[in-house]
């Protein structure tokens, strides 16, 4: 079962994903995104989202979140800009990436192995 990033978006429900993926995907698309076409044409696998429970991240991992912003929601709120789509701004996604790297990479003598 896919664990979606907590959001109020409709993207985590059908019909999003039903045509190509045959289930709800949490994507802002019913099918493939441009990055998927690029990956497929290069012979690369589609990357699983970081929040997908039990996903195989051996070929890579996708930290992107639909509707996310570059600035944190606190910064936007201070400028009276509402961001009701998600609270996972770029800094949250980078924190996920940092945590993932720390849990999967070994640091030895200053080099990542």
From TrEMBL:
Organism the protein comes from: Abeliophyllum distichum
Family, as annotated: Belongs to the 'GDSL' lipolytic enzyme family.
Top-level division of the source organism's lineage: Eukaryota
PANTHER family for this protein: GDSL-LIKE LIPASE_ACYLHYDROLASE FAMILY PROTEIN, EXPRESSED (PTHR22835:SF517), ZINC FINGER FYVE DOMAIN CONTAINING PROTEIN (PTHR22835)
Protein name: GDSL esterase/lipase
Xref: Gene3D superfamilies: SGNH hydrolase (3.40.50.1110)
């Amino acid at each position: 079962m896919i664990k979606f990033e907590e959001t109020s978006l409709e993207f985590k429900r059908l019909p999003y994903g039903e045509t190509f993926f045959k289930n709800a995907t949490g994507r802002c698309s019913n099918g493939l995104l441009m990055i998927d076409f690029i990956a497929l044409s290069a012979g690369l696998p589609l990357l699983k989202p970081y929040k997908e429970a039990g996903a195989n991240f051996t070929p890579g991992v996708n930290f992107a979140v639909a509707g996310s912003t570059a600035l944190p929601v606190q910064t936007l709120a201070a400028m009276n800009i509402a961001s009701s789509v998600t609270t996972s701004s770029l800094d949250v996604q980078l924190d996920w990436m940092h945590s993932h790297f720390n849990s999967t990479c070994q640091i030895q003598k200053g080099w990542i192995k």
